[in-house]
């Protein structure tokens, strides 16, 4: 039985892209960015790196769509729920500031 192997060039390109994304993450701190911009950039770069690692090095890119959805849907739902909780916390904080002065 023959095993399928992916070209080494693909892994080298992904490694280089991971290096560039890591350098960009470092530059966020180097340029002293603050607030939501900093955290948005850090989280986006972190998710991009994690996605590349999962897709290429864990071979999820070459799996069937059903398996990809089974693995990727729960974290996506958690992100949506976390975003909803964040929105709710802002509303709760503003309501308390308004009525409990």
From TrEMBL:
Membrane-crossing residues? 12-33, 39-60, 67-86
Protein name, as recorded: Cytochrome C oxidase subunit IV
Instruction: Classify the source by domain of life.
Output: Bacteria
Does this UniProt record's set of keywords contain Transmembrane?
yes
Keywords from UniProt, A to Z, are:
Cell membrane, Membrane, Transmembrane, Transmembrane helix
Spell out the InterPro entries in the cross-references. Cyt_c_oxidase_su4_prok
Signal peptide interval: none
State the annotated membrane topology for this chain.
Multi-pass membrane protein
Species this chain originates from: Duganella aceris
Compartmental location = Cell membrane
